[in-house]
Design goal:
single chain; mainly beta; Maltoporin, Chain A; 22-stranded antiparallel barrel; 3 helices; 22 strands; globular
Length: 431
C-alpha cells in the first residue's frame, strides 16, 4: 500500500508547507416543487430553504490562533409537516506553534487523514517534527472525544471515539497516512479499524490514489474482522491526447452501530448481519482527444452489488465538445449499458451549454434512468435507480461580481408512476 513512497522521494519537498490563506463562503438556497401521480391519485407539494456557512482562518509559518466553521441548516416543508435540521462538519478552535511543530484543536472536526471515519467531537493533538526527510515531512496525531451524529448536529449518546495517525507529506500534494480509529459503545468495542491512504503523483502525467479500512475485530466483539474497504484509482496521461484510467472498489457494508446496540440491549443478532452486504467494482476507461476541444472516451466495468449475485457488466461511452466551432457552446453526451441478472437497461445523459459574455452560463440537460438518493426514517441512505425515468433540467449561473454568484435551476422528472417539477434559486458570497 505504501510502495509509492520510494518512487516519489527523489526530490526534497518544500520547507514548511504550513501556510495558507483563509477563506469564507455564505450561501442561501430556496427550492419549490410539486409531485403528481400518473394514475390520477393525490399529489403533493414541498418547499425547502437551506443555508451554508464555511469559514477557515489563515495559517502561518509563525503560528497563532486557528479556527474553522462548516455548517448546513435546512428547513423542509411537505404538506402540513415541517422538518428543521442542522448539520456541522467543522466547528473548532485551536492553534499552532511557530513552524507548525505542535498543533492543538478542540471542538467538532473532520480529520481528512482518516477518510470516512474522520468525524469526531473532542480534542486533536498533532506533532510535526522540524527535520524533513527526502521523502517528506512526518506528522503524528492523536485524538479523542465523542461520535458526531451523521445527519444532524449533536453526538451519539454513549458512544466515544479516539485514535491516532501518522502522515508523511511531500511535494505536489503527495501524502501517505496510516491511522487507527477506536469506537466504543457502552462497554463494547463497536469498531477498531486500521486505515490506510496514499496519494502518489509522478510528475504531471501519472497519479495513484488508494484508501483502505481493515477491522481488527467484528462489531461488538461478534464475528470476525478483516478487510472492510479498499479503493484504488490510477490515471496516466500517456500523451497529450491519450489518457488511461483504472479503478478498483471493494467493500463490505456492516451496520456496526445497530449490531452493537442490539447486543447491549440483549437482542439476538442474526449471523447474516455480521457478514453484511458485499459490493465491488473494477473497471477501466480510455480517453482520447480527437482534435483540440473534442474528447471521446469508452469504458468497461464489472460490478457486484451483493455477494450472492453474479458480477454484471457496465459499458460506457462519452463525448465532450468544448467551445464548438468557437461559438461558446459546449456539448456533452454519456451512454451506459447495464447488464444485470434481473435484466438490462440503457441510460444516457446529454448537455448543451453556452457562455453569454464573461459572467453568465446557461445549460440544458436531459437524462434517463435517474438514480435518486433517499434518506430513510432510521437515518440511513437508499439509492433508487429508476430505468424508466426521464429528467430535463435548465440551469443558469451568474457571476454578479464582488464575490457574489447566483444559481437558478428548473427541473422536470417523470417516470411511469409520478411526475415531479421543481425550481431552485440560490445566492452565494465568497470572501
Amino acid at each position: 500500500m505504501l510502495a509509492g513512497v520510494a518512487c516519489a522521494s527523489a526530490r526534497r519537498p518544500l520547507a514548511a508547507q504550513t501556510a495558507s490563506s483563509g477563506y469564507g463562503r455564505v450561501s442561501l438556497f430556496f427550492q419549490w416543487g410539486s409531485t403528481s401521480v400518473a394514475d390520477g391519485g393525490a399529489g403533493s407539494s414541498f418547499n425547502d430553504a437551506w443555508a451554508t456557512l464555511t469559514l477557515r482562518s489563515a495559517t502561518s509559518d509563525s503560528g497563532g490562533l486557528e479556527f474553522a466553521l462548516d455548517g448546513r441548516g435546512r428547513s423542509t416543508s411537505a404538506g402540513d409537516a415541517r422538518e428543521n435540521r442542522l448539520q456541522l462538519y467543522d466547528a473548532w478552535v485551536g492553534g499552532r506553534t511557530k513552524g507548525g511543530l505542535f498543533t492543538a484543536r478542540a471542538g467538532q472536526m473532520w480529520l481528512n487523514e482518516l477518510g470516512a471515519l474522520g468525524a469526531v467531537g473532542g480534542v486533536l493533538l498533532e506533532l510535526r517534527p522540524e527535520t524533513d526527510w527526502k521523502a517528506g515531512r512526518l506528522r503524528f496525531g492523536a485524538f479523542g472525544g465523542l461520535e458526531p451524529r451523521s445527519w444532524e448536529a449533536g453526538w451519539v449518546p454513549g458512544v466515544k471515539k479516539g485514535g491516532a495517525y501518522v502522515a508523511l507529506d511531500g511535494d505536489a500534494a503527495r501524502r501517505h497516512v496510516l491511522g487507527w480509529v477506536l469506537t466504543r459503545n457502552g462497554g463494547l468495542t463497536e469498531r477498531s479499524v486500521v486505515t490506510l491512504s496514499n496519494f502518489v503523483p509522478v510528475g504531471t502525467t501519472f497519479f495513484l490514489y488508494q484508501a483502505a479500512e481493515y477491522d481488527l475485530s467484528g462489531p461488538g466483539g461478534q464475528g470476525s474482522g478483516g478487510l472492510t474497504y479498499l479503493f484504488a484509482n490510477a490515471r496516466w496521461a500517456v500523451t497529450r491526447w491519450l489518457e488511461l484510467q483504472g479503478t478498483y472498489h471493494r467493500g463490505r457494508s456492516v451496520d456496526a452501530r445497530t449490531i452493537t446496540q442490539d447486543e447491549i440491549d440483549g437482542r439476538p443478532v442474526d449471523p447474516k448481519r455480521l457478514e453484511g452486504l458485499l459490493f465491488g467494482s473494477v473497471g477501466g476507461r480510455v480517453s482520447v482527444e480527437v482534435v483540440r476541444g473534442v474528447r471521446a472516451w469508452v469504458g468497461l466495468a464489472r460490478d457486484t452489488y451483493n455477494e450472492d449475485d453474479p458480477p454484471s457488466n457496465r459499458y460506457s461511452a462519452g463525448l465532450h465538445l468544448s467551445n464548438l466551432f468557437r461559438s461558446g457552446v459546449d456539448v456533452s453526451g454519456i451512454w451506459n449499458r447495464n447488464d444485470r441478472a434481473a435484466g438490462s437497461y440503457d441510460s444516457w445523459y446529454a448537455s448543451v451549454g453556452r457562455s453569454l459574455g464573461s459572467r453568465v452560463y446557461l445549460s440544458v440537460d436531459a437524462s434517463n434512468a435517474v438514480s435518486v438518493l433517499r434518506t430513510t426514517g432510521e437515518g440511513g441512505v437508499v439509492v433508487e435507480t429508476r430505468p424508466s425515468s426521464r429528467r430535463y433540467t435548465l440551469n443558469g449561473n451568474v457571476n454578479l461580481g464582488r464575490g457574489f454568484s447566483l444559481l437558478l435551476s428548473a427541473e422536470r422528472l417523470a417516470d411511469d408512476a409520478t411526475n415531479q417539477t421543481r425550481a431552485m434559486g440560490g445566492l452565494s458570497y465568497s470572501f
